[in-house]
Amino acid sequence: MKVSVPATSANLGPGFDCLGLAISMKNQVIIRPSKFHSVSLKGEGANNPALKDNNMFISIFNDFYHNLSYKKRHFRFEFQNEIPLSRGLGSSSAVIVSAIASAYAIEGIKLEKDKLLNLALAYENHPDNITPAVMGGFNVACVQENEVRYINKAIPKNLKAVIVVPNRAISTQLSRKTLPFKYSKEDAVFNISHSSLLTAAFMAEDWEMLKHASFDQIHQKYRMKQMPELFDVQKTSLKEGALMSTLSGSGSTLFSMSYADDSKNLEKALKLRFPHFKVFTADFDNVGVRIEI
Ligand SMILES: Nc1ncnc2c1ncn2[C@@H]1O[C@H](COP(=O)(O)OP(=O)(O)O)[C@@H](O)[C@H]1O
Ligand SMILES: N[C@@H](CCOP(=O)(O)O)C(=O)O
C-alpha cells in the first residue's frame, strides 16, 4: 500500500491560519505487512535520528491502527521524503495526513477526504495546511465546532511556484511564539481586506490582483526578523517577476507565484543573488493525498 501527500504553502501572506495551497513535492510511504517492525528512510530527514527512534508518522499510525484493527501485525515502513523538515512547507501536515490515511487503507476501510481532514485537525489545530495537503489546489478554510469548513479551487497549469529554502530550520511552534498577543484595529482591517481580496483573486483567476492583495501586517515581519535576509528574498522576487511572494507557513521558506513564462528568469535571478539557499521551481498539486492499495 502506498500513500503520498503534497507539500503546502500556508498563510499566503495575509491569510494567517486560513489560506493555503498544495505544491507538487511529496512525501511518500509504502507499507507492507512484515514479521518485524522496520523502517527505511530516504530523502529529507534520512539522517535525522529522531525520525528513526521517535517517528511522528509511526506514533499517529499506531494510534489509529490499534483503534481500527483487532489484529496485532507488524509492518515495514518505507519513507521517501521530498518535503524538508521545519521549513514552512507543511512537513508535519504531510506526516499527519499520510499516517491517518495509511492506518485506514491498510485495514481496507474507506475514508472520505472530509473525514480525513477533520481527523487531522486533532493534531494540527489550524486548517491552512492540512486542507491543501488533503484536497490539493488553493484552499480557504476555517474551523467551526471542531470541523473544517473550506472552499477549494484548482490552480491552472500556466502558474508556477518558485521556492527559496534557506539552510536554517524554523519550528512552527517556536515561530508562533514570536507573534504579538494583541493587534490594532488597523492591522486587523488590513489583513481582513487583503486576505479577502487575495481569496477573490484566486477564485476569479485575476492573477495581476495578487500584486496588490498578498501583503500582511500580522505575522511575516515578526517571523522574518529571525532571518532578515528573507526581506531581501521577498523584495528581489517581486522585482524579478513574482505575482506574489510570501513567507511559506511559519518559515523559513519564501514562496513566490509567477506565470510559467516568467518562472525561469525569476528562479535564475534568485539563484544568482542567494547562492547559499536552495532555489527551485515547482508545479502546483490539484489532487492532494493519493492512496494506492
Ligand atoms: N518526514 C517526517 N517524518 C516524521 N516526522 C516528521 C517528518 N517531517 C516532519 N516531521 C515532524 O514534524 C516536525 C516539524 O514540524 P513543523 O515545525 O510544523 O514544520 P513544517 O513547517 O515543515 O510543517 C519535525 O520536527 C518532526 O517532528
Ligand atoms: N498558519 C500556520 C502555518 C504553519 O505552516 P507550516 O508549514 O510552517 O507548518 C502558521 O503560520 O503558524
Instruction: Please describe the biggest sheet, giving its number of strands, its sense, and whether it closes into a barrel.
Output: 7 strands, mixed
For the CA atoms, what is the radius of gyration? 19 Å
Number of helices: 11
When the domains are counted, the total is 2
Could you tell me the CATH topology label of the largest domain: Ribosomal Protein S5, domain 2
SSE-based structural type: alpha+beta
In the CATH scheme, the class of the largest domain would be Alpha Beta
Distance between the termini: 5 Å
SSE order: EEEHHEHHHEEEHHHHHEEHEE
> Can you count the beta strands?
11
In CATH, the architecture of the largest domain is 2-Layer Sandwich
Q: In one word, what is the shape?
A: globular
Cofactors, ions and other ligands in the entry: adenosine-5'-diphosphate, the ligand N[C@@H](CCOP(=O)(O)O)C(=O)O
Proportion of helical residues: 25-40%
Mean pLDDT, nearest integer? Answer: 96
Low confidence ranges: none
Q: What portion of residues belong to β-strands?
A: 25-35%
- Regarding quaternary structure, what we see is single chain
Enzyme class: transferase
Keywords: Amino-acid biosynthesis, ATP-binding, Cytoplasm, Kinase, Nucleotide-binding, Threonine biosynthesis, Transferase
Pfam families: GHMP_kinases_C, GHMP_kinases_N
EC number: 2.7.1.39
